[in-house]
Amino acid sequence: MRQDYGEAHEWNLIFVRGFNDWEVDVVAELFHFLTSHTPTSEGPDGIRWKLRKDGALDSRSFYYVLTERPDRSFPCRSVWTVKAPPLVSFFVWTAAWKRILTYDNLMRRGCTLAGWCYMCQCDGETVDHLLLHCHEVSALWSFCLSLF
After folding, report:
1. Are residues 117 and 98 in the same domain?
2. Residues 26, 30, 31, 33: is their CA dihedral positive or negative?
3. Mean pLDDT of 110-124
4. I need a surface site. Which of 34, 61, 76, 112 has the fewest CB within 10 A?
5. What is the pLDDT of residues 23-67, one digit of tens each?
6. Residue pair 139/119 in contact by the 8 Å Cβ criterion
7. One domain for residues 138 and 81
8. If DSSP codes are grouped into helix, strand and coil, which group holds residue 113?
9. Residue 34 confidence (pLDDT)
10. 58 and 93 part of one domain
11. Residue 121 confidence (pLDDT)
12. Signed CA dihedral, 31, 32, 37, 38: sign only
């Protein structure tokens, strides 16, 4: 929360947990960003919908975003600018384009394998199943997200 004291401004952020070693630099960047930028308008803070001049979200403009922009693709450039190991960026990039070596992709390349998911031994292994729908992977995602 930002508090104003006349000309002086102070940020009072409360974090729910301590930082890991690899997060300290990111938090320092956040504080640097907050202290170097000041809001341009007076008045209360709020969230604005950019597709309407009044800033209000309505179903028409949201429907437009969902239907009228089929050419919108995955933001590939942002994958490579994130502070992550190159192998992680490469995996995210190939997964976004559905090119990781899952059963369905290997079958297209002529490989003959068992047609089930290696993690749960159930459904056919596709990129979506392996990363999103597999119940074994869901438990793994829940564990990973609980660490943050």
Report:
1. yes
2. positive
3. 81
4. 112
5. 888 888 888 887 776 666 666 667 778 888 888 888 888 888 777
6. no
7. yes
8. coil
9. 78
10. no
11. 84
12. positive
Does position 3 have pLDDT exceeding 60, yes or no?
no
* Domain count across the chain: 2
Last residue of a domain, one of 42, 67, 92: 67
For residues 102 and 134, membership in a common domain is answered with yes
Helix, strand, coil tally for the chain in percent (to 5):
45, 5, 50
Domain span at residue 40 reads 2-67
Res 147: pLDDT: 85
Query: The whole model's pTM is what?
Result: 0.47
* 140 shares a domain with 90: yes
Is residue 21 located within the same domain as residue 57?
yes
CA dihedral of residues 22, 25, 26, 30 (deg, nearest 10): 150
| Last residue within a domain, chosen from 13, 48, 67 | 67
Tokens of 44: 């209360």
User: Is residue 4 pLDDT above 70, yes or no?
Assistant: no
CB neighbours (10 Å) of residue 21? 6
How far, rounded to the nearest angstrom, does the alpha carbon of residue 133 sit from its chain's CA centroid? 17
